[in-house]
Amino acid sequence: MDDKGVLSTDLLFATLIVILIVAGMVSLVESELSKTQIGELGKARMAGERVAEAINTVYVNGPGYEVNLTLPPGTYTINVNNGMITVNYENYKINLTIIPRTGVTPADLDPGSYNLRNDNGTIKTTKIT
Fold first, then answer.
1. What's the pLDDT at 10?
2. What is the spatial order of strands in the sheet that 92-97 belongs to?
């Protein structure tokens, strides 16, 4: 009888140790995934800021000025409207303001190359293929 009781105690103790090790590994993996997600969100925000800077530059330099812009690969979209740029990444939205409050042709930008042009005060965005 005592042998069976000792075996049960040893088995419970070993199971507890395995559960603690697995829980620790899950915590580490979750932490790394969170860091990756934060890094991707930062990359998406930087892409949005590049678009805002390009639109502001094209607007300030006047009619006829144009800029070619390449957005890095990623799983984000950038919506351009009058006075506002919205960066969408998974469940996150980041709003950035731009100088021109009017005269910006609305556009949805994915990663890729674009041409931004000031066409007599109207900022137009064209995808470069």
1. 79
2. 92-97, 84-89, 76-81, 107-109
Stated length of the chain? 129
Question: What integer pLDDT is reported at residue 50 of this predicted model?
Answer: 95
Confirm if 66 and 60 have CB atoms less than 8 A apart: no
Neighbour count for residue 93 (Cβ, 10 Å): 10
In degrees, rounded to 5, the angle at the alpha carbon of residue 65 between the alpha carbons of residues 64 and 68 is 125
The stretches of the chain forming alpha helices (DSSP H) are 2-60
Encoding tokens for residue 18? 């395995």
What's the whole-model pTM score? 0.72
> Residue 87: which domain range?
2-128
114: phi then psi, degrees, rounded to nearest 5: -140, 155
Closest alpha carbon to 87 in 69, 110, 105, 67: 110
The number of domains in the chain is 1
